[in-house]
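Sequence in, structure out.
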Amino acid sequence: MRIALNLPIGARLNSGRTMTLACILLLVANAPHAAPENTYLSDLPVVLSASRMPQPLNEAPGAVTVIDGDFIRATGYRDLARIFRLVPGMQVGQERGNNYWVTYHGLGGTFPSELQVLIDGRSIYSPSSFGGVDWGALPLNIDEIDRIEIVRGPNAVTYGANAFMGAINIITRHTLQEPINLIRTSVGSPGIRDLDAMTYTRYGAVSMRITAIAHNDDGFYNLNDARRVETLATRTDWRLSNADELTMHLSQSAARKDEGYSKSLFDNNPERKSSSSTQAVHLTWTHAASANEETLLNYYHNREHLTDGWTANLPAGYPFGPSQPSLDRNRRSVRNHIEGQHRISTEHRQLVWGAEARRDEIDAPFLYSGGNPPAEKLFRTFVNLDEHLSRNWQLNLGISVEHYSGEPTHIAPRVFLNTQINANHSLRTGFSRAWQQLLTFQKYGDVRSYDPATGTLLVYPNQPNPDLKQARIDSMEVGYLGRFKPMQSSLDVRLFNERITNYTVLTQVPSTAVLTPYIGSFQYMNLQHPVTLRGVEYQIKAKPRAGTEILFSHTLIARHAQDPGIEDRIAPYTASLTWLQQWNGAWSSVLSMVRMGPLSGSDGFVPIVQYTAKPYTTIDMRLAWHTRLEQGKKLEISLNAINLGERHQEMPDRSEQTYLAVLGDNTPANYASRMVYLSASLEF
């Protein structure tokens, strides 16, 4: 049987490049009428993130993409977030060079919070005010990553309401797994000066990894977005007995970033510097009574402090001008989280159950003018069951009961039925529901600015809405995972229908503040109509010959929200093509091309008008050479480059674009820049 795939990737790819991609897909998709029982590829990876139970990829309750550490290191990316551009359904962009906007199926706010992001089971989602993840300052060295598991679809049953659209689980290597000492330096343009170091040590039953990171760059050309990030982190594994192990993570990160624009309305977003510091303590105790039974206890403490203040400038000619009120987004937060789980398994059944509790405290006087918000508390229980009904049929059931402060108790169910057609082909179909955790700022954000001379309320950009409801997503999906003999290829497909009710958006509301006609006043509210996303995403992998690997991902999304502004926050299509080549024993290369559809991205802090970034194509590449030195030392030198394609804008700041348009400038305010750097690493 010959399978043909029609790929409407986008107008800018309807050319010779489209034909090249189509030819690759046609070759990869050739398959015999009936696959033999023996597998064409090595065993499928075992994943944990879909259900907290070890399951082969084709038995997981949902679509899971696994990115191993070798692939991550082969790309040469300095920023881990960039790797997610190559995952089906993921939409990633940069409003500035010192941070990333990472979502699944778009739709995220200025600081997306629809994805749960974990490092070894610790959430790095920030509860402080706006939520999201600071991708530009992760306490993590790329070389210590064993693999990343991305659950594509709601996963609240497993990880709670932050896994509203999916989950990213970053799993680092055990300290006894390939322990190496490493030092790497990268130098390039614009202003790239990186130093990474990693070392291992062992004392009897205790082994430790120490990681130090210092990353510097000047960001995008002609934009105030330089950064300096310094991190010190440790992982310690202590083998207490044959059945017990204690793992401890400690991390400290400090970042200094340039923010803002040279021109903004009343200097409401001027050029300035911000700083942040984060500390984390993470303890995990694992008791493996046998190969079929395991108990886990997990506790972590996160603390962060961010400083971002400036002075606005209201010139003469406006009400109460001239005036220079002080503004800031300064904030502190503390999170304490504890959870326990118990897993048991038999020949045909696996069961995991557990509970967790969490407390978030925030201190941000300017962002909460009516007083700091109450501490946010979470209590949650969950159960996941994996039942093999027969040799070819498998049932996955899950349910989570969760309660957040001030919110009703919600139940999030999931049911999936997997069919193993044979050893190389499987189907799955399922339903899952999730309730989104509301951001503290969405409910209680109360931002006011007064004239320092008279005390008159000048602006009231954010008003609280404690009656805001949690959004709910109901997701139906049909998936296929197949492996084929020609070119050792595989095909992963997900068809989805996602219906979101009570989605939260910023809405303009009345205000008596003097400058409301110029800046507006806003409040988070629930949409009265649902947002529906329907589409298909797939990834094809092929190894046409020894040393060559090709990956192609493509996503098409039909968006229905009865509101063009909401729909424009989701790119209707994305695609990526990656070619990895091992030329001989010493040389290797990676070439990636990413195509992104039109995207307005986040809601912005002042979302008065709509603005959408145009579609673009960008190219990343890496050429590496390595050799073995005396005593097994490995030296690697690589040339790396990103954004080699057309000049483009990825994520607009809509209020900035609006102000420039008033000044008669309709060009993008934040073009993405090429970055080219040379790296040298030594493993010993």
